[in-house]
Amino acid sequence: MSVPHIDDIAIDRLLSLSSIYGAVNEALKDWGNGNAANTIRVRASAKGQMASAMAAVAPPYSGGKVYATKDGVFTFLNVLFDDQGNLLCTLDGDVLTRLRTPVLCQIAIEKFAPENANKGAIIGAGRQGRLHLEMLIDSVKTLKSIKIYDPRKEAAQALVDIAQSRGVTAEIAATPSDAIKGAQVVVTLTPATEPLFEADAVNEEALICAVGSTKYDKCELPPKLMARAVSVVCDDVEGSKIECGDLIRAEDEGFFRWEDAIEFKDVCADKVRTPRANNSIVVFETQGLALQDVAAAGVAWEKFKKEISS
């Protein structure tokens, strides 16, 4: 019997941000309690090609993701096993990755965002932009306005139109600094290699969700911001030491110490309590976890089985 493959079209039909939220949240709690496991990402590169792999156990499933990168284009493949080690299916990874990424930020926003936050900002209106915008609007119930920055005005305008259609006042920002002025929840989604704004441009009460700094040579946030933050939370501290350009640079320049980094899994498991960004700054750094992929893939598999059985 051939192994089923769930393609991006099917995943887009089967899954939504809300449908995978519970599975990802529970997987993080399990990881924090020692009942799940996650590896750091490994990469191999030669002659302009790069291959990456990451794996996790999120009971009752295990699996992971392997992908190739060429000229900034990613080709993902996920694999899913049951708790007996049986191969259940393979899955395309583009839609799955775009869905699971904002869910982690959603959980962070619920835990760290200032109470009654009403101003938001998104820097970067690329492939991750729309779903992060929708997540932000759904997560911050008191959100009244949002600024969008992207060097491509048409991309920023597309997000402005979506926000306005959801009843949120939105406008294009002229610069990243303009976007974050007064913002209490900020999401950065760029491939920047230099900080997007100065540390003193950040509001005195703000949660910064940094999503784009996924390699050591990437940098979205100014190193000095880490010194202003009451908490710096990582989706995986050990992985961040290798991949998080923001924190690698901040540590090199003396504005951050790795021993001060907080594991998100421990927050989710209620082992560590981190204050909200009320009159303070919280930085949440995420490079993405295989745990998210496996948890979301498990939901896709369950919905796929129901669909074909009916």
How would you characterize the overall build of this protein?
The protein has an 8-stranded parallel β-sheet with strand order 10-9-8-11-12-15-13-14. Strands 1, 2, 3, 4, 5, 6 and 7 form a 7-stranded mixed β-sheet that branches. With 310 residues, it is α/β, with parallel strands linked by helices. Strand 4 and strand 5 (61-70) form a beta hairpin. The protein folds into 2 domains: 5-98 and 291-309, ornithine cyclodeaminase, domain 1, CATH 3.30.1780; 102-288, NAD(P)-binding Rossmann-like Domain (Rossmann fold, 3-Layer(aba) Sandwich), CATH 3.40.50. The chain has helices at 8-14, 17-32, 94-112, 129-139, 153-165, 176-180, 223-228, 237-243, 245-252, 264-268, 290-309, and strands at 5-6, 37-38, 42-46, 49-58, 61-70, 73-81, 87-92, 119-123, 145-149, 169-172, 185-188, 206-210, 231-234, 262-263, 281-285. The mean pLDDT is 96. The two termini are 20 Å apart. It contains 11 helices and 15 strands. 38% of the residues lie in helices and 25% in strands. Helix 2 (17-32) packs across helix 3 (94-112).
Secondary structure: elements and pairs:
Layout: E1 5-6, H1 8-14, H2 17-32, E2 37-38, E3 42-46, E4 49-58, E5 61-70, E6 73-81, E7 87-92, H3 94-112, E8 119-123, H4 129-139, E9 145-149, H5 153-165, E10 169-172, H6 176-180, E11 185-188, E12 206-210, H7 223-228, E13 231-234, H8 237-243, H9 245-252, E14 262-263, H10 264-268, E15 281-285, H11 290-309
Helix pairs in contact: 2-3, 2-11, 3-4, 3-11
Number of strands: 15
Radius of gyration over C-alpha positions, nearest whole angstrom: 19 Å
- The structural class is alpha/beta
- Spatial ordering of strands, largest sheet: 10-9-8-11-12-15-13-14
Tally of individual domains:
2
Unreliable parts: none
Q: What separation lies between the terminal Cα atoms?
A: 20 Å
Write the CATH fold name of the largest domain: Rossmann fold
Percentage of residues in DSSP E strands: 25-35%
CATH architecture of the largest domain: 3-Layer(aba) Sandwich
